[in-house]
Amino acid sequence: MIISLLTRPVRYAISTLSIKVITVFLGIVMLCYCKNDIDVINTFNEFHNLPSQSVKNLETIYTDSGKIQIKLLAPELKRFSNVEEPYTEFPAGIEVIFFDKNQEPESQLTAKYAIYFEANKLWEARDSVIAINNLGDTLNTELLFWDEKKELIYTNKFVKITTENEVIWGEGLEANQEFTDWKIKNVKGTIYIEK
To answer: Each residue of 140-160: pLDDT tens digit?
Structure first.
């Protein structure tokens, strides 16, 4: 009986010591042989930067109550919905045709690059942006925003507007989304066209 009482604490002490030694050994092995391979880490980062949708030669029509509102054409669309702020990118340009209540083309916009921020309902068009309204007024700029919520088109960059009677240059512009009521914030010059 005395022998069994003495061996029990010794066995317990040996098994506790063995677990501690094995744990320390495994920890050292893991620290020595684990490494952060930058190529492997970059592969994971690249996966999260891939678009969730990709479309070539897009032609889509937006309708409301069965009536055409917008026709959108783009050579390429990339939608990123797996990011904190989802967006849709048009890296090869965009052409948008807006229709009036009678489903007649009212205005159009073209750009060599565009991006749409879904949460804010904000469009950004860049590089050789051209907007034409139903009166034939033509806007040329390098950067143009369209806020769908406010139904507002604006920029703070250089603009040129050509109308039937004049060409106006300036900095900054605000207009309604139909581009029928517009104002250049800082007019730099005007050339009147004689007929």
So the answer is: 999 999 999 999 999 999 999
- As given in the structure block, the two tokens for residue 13 are 């002490």
What single-letter DSSP state applies at residue 155? Answer: E
List, as one string, the DSSP characters of 82-149.
SSSS-EEEETT-EEEEEE-TTS-EEEEEEESEEEEETTTTEEEEEEEEEEE-TT--EEEEEEEEEETT
One-letter amino acid at 44 equals F
Single-letter amino acid, residue 180: T
Identify the three-state secondary structure at position 193: coil
Of the candidates 145, 141, 108, the one whose C-alpha atom is nearest the C-alpha of residue 127 is 141
- The token duo for 27 is 């920890």
The pTM score is 0.72
Would residue 93 be called left, alpha or beta, if left means φ above 0 and alpha means ψ between -120 and 50 degrees? left
Cross-strand pairs, 189? 169
Please report the DSSP string for 1-62 in residue order: -HHHHHHHHHHHHHHHHHHHHHHHHHHHHHHHH----HHHHHHHHHHHTS-SEEEEEEEEEE
